[in-house]
Design goal:
- The protein is α/β, with parallel strands linked by helices and 251 residues long.
- It folds into 2 domains: 1-82 and 170-183 and 200-251, P-loop containing nucleotide triphosphate hydrolases (Rossmann fold); 90-167, no CATH class.
- Helices cover 35% and strands 25% of the residues.
- It starts with a strand and ends in a 5-residue tail after the last helix.
């Protein structure tokens, strides 16, 4: 695998009781890029996303991260290698504060294990870095707010901060702007762009304006297969893509 390719799928297929959700997908994601995965409802985006992050086991095919075969590895093991995903539904801890949520991410990265029994002195040493990450996503005024009390857009910002706490080499984001108003969409898109500096991002996204402004390259799925790949300008001219996706308002 070329050093320019950080994540690669080869002939990836997933069957559910005879139904083929992902059908012989081969995909290469360039290091340092923002790569979008789009397609109409039922295209197989979420299934492919789950396969790439090893939350689903492939029926056939292979996944390589930094040239290493990760197809049979555990999701937690893959995360320690630098491949970290977020979830479509915000996955923060609602009864913990913003600061505590980010410190837990830092704890996993820098204190060797997810351990609620680490000393307070050890955890307090993470405060400075946690506050830096929180400031980077615009949540400095919410340090002691419980995550569950935050507005939806700010919960997603917190999720990005918690993901960045793991210092991933590659981030995979599932529908990061889903359910947001225009103002929050713009904020999250800007956060993703900032988070992508010196790392790679794969994003499943339904908002075409976000895709157009954010992505270096795009893969369009339809019925579990790749329909088209290229820049936004290239795929938007594809008549098959226009028929399958561009005329719809949802992924």
């Amino acid at each position: 695998m070329s050093q320019d390719i950080i994540l690669e799928a080869r002939g990836l297929t997933k069957e559910f009781g005879g139904f083929i959700a992902v059908n012989d997908v081969s995909l290469k994601i360039k290091r340092g890029s923002i790569h979008a995965l789009i397609g109409p409802n039922g295209a197989g985006k979420t299934t492919l996303f789950n396969l790439l992050t090893i939350f689903l086991t492939a029926s056939r095919g292979k996944i390589l991260f930094n040239s290493e075969d990760i197809t049979k590895k555990h999701p937690a093991e893959v995360a320690t290698m630098g491949l970290v995903r977020s979830f479509q539904i915000s996955s923060t801890y609602p009864n913990l504060t913003v600061l505590e949520n980010v410190k837990l991410g830092l704890q996993q990265k820098y204190i060797s294990s997810y351990n609620f029994w680490s000393s307070s002195k050890c955890l307090n040493a993470l405060n400075e870095r946690a506050k830096e990450l929180i400031e980077s996503v615009g949540l400095s005024n919410y340090l002691q707010h419980k995550a569950g009390d935050l507005p939806y857009g700010r919960k997603r910002a917190l999720e990005i901060a918690a993901t960045l706490a793991l210092d991933p080499e590659m981030m995979l984001l599932d529908e990061p702007t889903a359910g947001m108003g225009h103002e929050d969409v713009e904020k999250i898109a800007n956060l993703i762009k900032e988070a992508a500096v010196n790392r790679t991002v794969l994003v499943v996204e339904h908002n075409l304006n976000v895709v157009a402004n954010l992505s270096d390259s795009i893969t369009v799925l339809q019925r579990g297969k790749i329909l088209s790949e290229g820049t936004y300008a290239e795929i938007s001219k594809n008549l098959e893509v226009q028929e399958a996706y561009m005329g719809t308002s949802h992924a």
